[in-house]
């Protein structure tokens, strides 16, 4: 049994996209549509429990504006979300959102070591493409064998469907992969598909439950900037590279 592939979540894992990307884009879309809705950071923290922008908009209407009138809430959510996606892609295109610590280095090292790479996210594919192209360059889109994004499956995270979809596309078994996640919805999704997780938390997810994770870190670290181990196995080195992952995999998978 050997580690063959790394599967990455996007939002909160590859980059801190939520506050300076998605939240900003939702609010700008509401403004453009002349809606007097504004999601502050505290509210957004709660709304993040609902994965996927369209579902999040519908949840918000049902729970915070139940008297809101529109002909068809699904079409309204779809159109509002399409506008939000356009705004988000522009924000990412302006280069405002960097990758998290250690991400670019690990992707590069993993490719060199012959590990296969994929994405499993609930976000819209255009958002993923924009983030990768604007941080790593357009060529980096080819590094990922599969980009499993929101609309590929009927059930979003925490359901395991998106990870199962990626495994099927790559013709891999769950035990041949490791997933990288940042949230409770993410670890539930990977776990349902039978994949073990490395967690790197962020401001929205540092109080989530990560039972079952191999390791919970503050970020992936760099050689000159070690990660902080929050839970799980104490392994060397103190930044996530291929050796570190192989050691974890041999011990816990
Ligand atoms: C991320 C999400 C996404 C983004 C918004 O969850 O829930 O919905 O917040 O993206 P995860 P869209 O990191 O667990 O995949 O608006 O494109 O849906
Ligand atoms: Mg995430």
The radius of gyration computed from the alpha-carbon positions, rounded to a whole number of angstroms, is: 18 Å
* Helix-strand makeup class: alpha/beta
Poorly predicted ranges (pLDDT <50, ≥5 residues)? Answer: none
The number of helical segments is 9
Return the CATH class of the largest domain.
Alpha Beta
The CATH superfamily of the largest domain appears as HAD superfamily/HAD-like
Number of strands: 7
Bound molecules: xylulose-1,5-bisphosphate, magnesium ion
What does this structure look like?
By secondary structure, this protein is α/β, with parallel strands linked by helices. It has two domains: 5-15 and 99-252, HAD superfamily/HAD-like (Rossmann fold); 18-93, DNA polymerase, domain 1 (Orthogonal Bundle), CATH 1.10.150. It is 42% helix and 12% strand. The chain contains nine helices and seven strands, in the order βαααααβαβαβαβββα. The chain has a seven-stranded mixed sheet with strand order 3-2-1-4-5-6-7, sandwiched between helices. The structure holds xylulose-1,5-bisphosphate and magnesium ion.
């Amino acid at each position: 049994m050997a580690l063959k592939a790394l599967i990455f979540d996007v939002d909160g894992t590859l980059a801190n996209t939520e506050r300076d990307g998605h939240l900003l884009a939702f609010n700008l879309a509401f403004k453009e549509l002349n809606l007097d809705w504004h999601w502050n950071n505290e509210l957004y923290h709660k709304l993040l429990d609902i994965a996927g922008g369209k579902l999040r908009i519908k949840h918000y209407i049902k729970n915070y504006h139940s008297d809101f009138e529109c002909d068809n809430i699904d079409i309204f959510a779809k159109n509002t979300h399409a506008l939000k996606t356009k705004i988000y892609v522009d924000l990412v295109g302006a280069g405002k959102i960097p990758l998290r610590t250690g991400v670019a280095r690990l992707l590069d090292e993993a490719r060199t070591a012959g590990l296969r790479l994929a994405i499993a996210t609930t976000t819209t594919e255009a958002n993923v493409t924009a983030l990768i192209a604007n941080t790593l360059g357009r060529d980096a889109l080819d590094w990922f064998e599969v980009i499993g994004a929101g609309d590929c499956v009927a059930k979003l995270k925490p359901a395991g469907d998106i990870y199962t979809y990626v495994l099927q596309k790559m013709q891999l078994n769950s035990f041949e992969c490791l997933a990288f996640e940042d949230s409770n919805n993410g670890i539930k999704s990977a776990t349902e598909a039978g994949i073990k997780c490395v967690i790197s938390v962020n401001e929205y997810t540092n109080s989530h439950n990560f039972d079952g994770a191999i390791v919970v870190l503050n970020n992936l670290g760099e050689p000159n900037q070690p990660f902080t181990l929050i839970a799980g196995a104490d392994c060397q080195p103190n930044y996530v590279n291929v050796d570190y992952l192989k050691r974890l995999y041999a011990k816990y998978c």
